[in-house]
Structure formats: C-alpha cells, structure tokens
Specification:
By secondary structure, the protein is an alpha/beta fold. It has 18 helices and 11 strands. The structure holds iron/sulfur cluster. The site of iron/sulfur cluster has 11 residues, from loops.
Length: 469
C-alpha cells in the first residue's frame, strides 16, 4: 500500500468506524466492505480461500458463524469490537506477522506471535494442587519489566500478550496501565474471575484491548471442591457483570478423566453461553509437578471422546453459538507444538523464560537477558530445530506424547527446573507420561489416518521453505 505504519493504522481504523456506524442498517454490505479492505491491506498474509470463505459466511445469513458474528456485533461494546479488530487483526495478524517472518529469517530462531507472562505468583484463592498457592506473593514482574518486554516484543513484531499467574488481576491496576500504554497491542488475561467488579469492567471498556478467560472446572460442587466454597457463584457474577458491560470473555477449562464429560455437556455449554461466554479454551490435564496426580490423565477412549466432541461443538449442525478450541487435539490447525517461541512462550513471575506454560525448564531469565537472547537460549533452539515433534499432530507434545524428546532436550541443553518450591527432574516428569504416550499412540495414529490432514502437510512445507530460505 506504500503507507507508513501509523497512516495505515489510521486508514484501517477509519474504515472500521464507518463499517460499525452503519452495521445496524446494512450489515452484510458493510462487513463485505471490511473484508475487501482487509484483503487489500493483509493480502498475502492469508490465502485467497480464507477471504472467500469469510465472504461466503457473511452472505449465508443463517449460517452458524454468521449468527455468532451478529451476536458479537449486537452485544459487545463498540470500542471492544473496534480495538480487537485493530489490534488482533491489523497489528498482530497483519503488521506483526510480516515483521515476525522477517525477524525469523534475520535471527534464525523462533519469534512468537504471542507472549504469555505472569505479572505475579500471588493468588487470592488456594486451589488444591496449584503451584500459586505455594509460591504466594513472593514473585512479581514489575510494571517497568512488563512494559520493557512489550516494548522489545513490538520491535520483533509481537502485538499479542497473554497474562496468567498466580492470579493476574491481583495486579489489575498495572494491567490496565499496560493496556493504555500499549494501546496498539491486544491483551488477554487468564483469571479465576473473582476480582472482576464494576469498576474493572468500566476500565476494560475504556481501554478496549483486554479480554478474559475465566477458569471453571464444572458445576458448583466439582468446581468449589478444588477452588473453594462460593467460587462458582463468584465466577457467575463476574460473567454477568462482563456481559452487562459488553466485554469479550470466555472460559479456560482444564479437562481431566473426571470432568471431561461435564465440561462438554449440552447443559454446561447452554449455561455459559447464556452467561455471555464467546469461546472456550479446553486444556488437556498435564501431570506437571512432583505431586501431580497421574490418575487425572485421560485414557484413549476419553481423549478420543474429546476429539470428536469439540469438533461436533464447532460444527454447523451443532446449535451452540460458542467457539471451542482444544489445546491438545487441535494441533493439526497450528502445525503441532506451538511452544519454545514458535508461536508462543511463557515468562513466569520470576522472569524465567520457559518454552511452554506446562514445561518448567529454562536457562534464560528476562531480568538478565534481552527478549531476543531468551529466544535464542539452547532449549528454545532445540524446540526450533525439533518442531514439529511428530508428523502426527495428535501427538504434538515433547512431554505428553513424546516424553523421550523433552528428556533429551532438557538434558542436552542443561536447562534447569524453574519450579522454586519443589524442583521436578525431567525424568520424573516424563516418567509420568510414558505409559500415557504409548497407550495413546495407536489411537492417535488411527484418528490421524482417518481424519486429520489439514495442517500437517502445510506446515511441513512452510517449515521446509523457512529452512531453505
Ligand atoms: S510443549 Fe506441549 S503443551 Fe506446550 S505447546 Fe507444545 S505441545 Fe502444547
């Protein structure tokens, strides 16, 4: 387009304003205009098929995803819609992706699309089995450090930042300050939901670039048995407040052998949709930590149930207007493991740069090295060289499904445990996954053979191109 970055952002921003202004009158026409403009700006970042598929959804008025979009436009605050489109769409998907691709070639290492950081290890709850309860409020990334990470990240093309903990909203003033200072970035916090109040909802609305995922593990009895008496009701109240203020939020659910049916049941989905949830992140239980309970791991039948059920929830024939994503069974859409900086990595409250929120090993601390140096640490380079860890993306993880790989990477790279309370050896961690991995292998191979060919081939080609560049 030949426009400077800020001029292009302004043009795109004006186009979104005008589309939103008339969205109530002639929605289909204005949405198509926005897709045309997006194609003009972002062009080759996405395939022609992607733009055509979006136009088809818009024209199919009664399709599930058009009804979903209409609901978002009718119910979300206009500032949230605009800032999400600008920051997640224009900055992260367009401007950021272009820069990231260049930086990957220049620096010959993984440069992620998003960074997950823990502002604090403190939490106001004491859930059974959670490391935050043990760390307490000892560890924090200062506002200046968070600001510095985002500033360094933008130079590499990273415009999307997720926050977890501990409970990130223990630091809600600093989070809002960060959203304001980096108003061209998108922020997303994984929270227990109990610190959401009227004032915070108003602040979220004002900044427009912060969305939430609330943790829930089932209905009240199951949820509160681990999280504490009354927590379920507080999460319900938080959802009502967020919905009232037109904020974008969904759920983050750890599924286990005990709760996987409940958290995918029609009854549960209907309840959270009614409360205003727009999406669900399903996270497979990971047996991380010296005292982790291996019996919560799913057996092959249970995991296969999740594989089919999440696809069913997303399908056109299912009437649930919610977007569900399974962090373990949807590897095919993202080319397998996304960690080690390929698409994301994790900075804990101590500053340790870990490949993944579940993999607590590192040899780089952001208080001592730059972001780029952290991305070039030996363990991340081993991820870079090893990804994808399996050509079957239903077995993506170097820990859960290929435990021998994590063991060898951590040992070869000399990475240390970052668990400050009870350091776990990589042999102990991977030992808990060995049986699971061998039992899942034959089922995963059959499912992959029968169903999944979307991302694997594509990513292998893309990676070959990067390697040959
Ligand atoms: S390390 Fe495992 S859990 Fe983390 S992103 Fe990779 S596949 Fe997923």
């Amino acid at each position: 387009m030949g426009l400077s970055h800020s001029a292009a952002r302004l043009t795109y921003s004006a186009a979104i304003d005008s589309a939103l202004k008339y969205i109530g009158k002639d929605r289909e026409k204005n949405l198509i205009k926005l897709v045309d403009l997006t194609e003009k700006f972002m062009g080759g970042n996405f395939s022609q098929n992607t733009y055509d598929a979006i136009r088809k959804i818009i024209c199919g008025k009664d399709s599930k995803w058009m009804r979903y979009t209409n609901k978002l436009l009718d119910e979300l605050s206009p500032n949230v819609v605009k800032m999400t489109a600008l920051n997640l769409g224009y900055e992260a998907a367009f401007n950021g992706t272009k820069t990231i691709r260049k930086m990957r070639e220049l620096h010959k290492c993984n440069i992620p699309w998003l960074i997950l950081m823990d502002p604090t290890s403190a939490c106001n709850l004491h859930c059974t089995g959670c490391w935050a309860a043990q760390y307490g409020n000892k560890l924090n990334l200062s506002f200046d450090k968070l600001d510095d990470i985002v500033s360094q990240g933008k130079k590499l093309g990273i415009y999307f930042y997720m926050l977890t903990g501990g409970e990130p909203l223990v630091r809600k003033d600093d989070i809002i300050k960060l959203c304001k200072k980096h108003h061209d970035c998108e922020f997303h916090a994984f929270t227990n939901g109990t610190l959401v109040d009227e004032q915070f909802c108003r602040q979220m609305d004002e900044v427009g670039n912060l969305s939430l995922s609330l943790s829930l593990e089932g209905f009240d009895e199951v949820n509160d048995s681990r999280r504490g008496e009354g927590v379920f009701d507080k999460v319900m109240e938080a959802m009502e407040l967020l919905k009232k203020h037109g904020q974008l939020f969904g759920l983050s659910i750890c599924y286990t052998s005990k709760n996987y049916r409940t958290v995918t049941s029609d009854e549960f989905l209907d309840m959270i949709i009614e409360k205003g949830c727009r999406y669900i992140w399903y996270f497979h239980y990971m047996p991380v930590g010296n005292s982790a309970a291996a019996e919560l791991l799913l057996d092959p039948d249970q995991r296969e149930y999740m594989y089919h059920r999440v696809r069913e929830i997303r399908s056109e024939s299912c009437d649930k207007l919610i977007f569900a994503f399974d962090f373990q069974n949807d590897g095919e859409y993202v080319g397998g493991c996304i960690a080690g900086g390929r698409n994301y990595f994790h900075i804990n409250a101590n500053g340790d740069c870990e490949p993944c929120v579940f993999i607590h090993y590192s040899s780089a601390n952001i208080n001592e090295v730059s972001l780029l140096e952290a991305l070039k640490q030996p363990l991340f380079m081993a991820y870079h060289d090893g990804q994808p860890f399996n050509s079957n993306h239903l077995r993506p993880c170097p820990m859960l499904e290929n435990p021998e790989l994590l063991m060898s990477m951590v040992e070869k790279c000399g990475a240390k445990s970052t668990d400050l309370e009870s350091p776990e050896t990589v042999e102990h961690l991977c030992g808990k996954c060995a049986l699971y991995a061998s039992e899942w292998k034959s089922r995963a191979d059959r499912l992959w053979e029968e169903n999944s060919h979307f991302g694997g081939t594509k990513y292998m080609n893309e990676k070959d191109e990067i390697k040959n560049a």
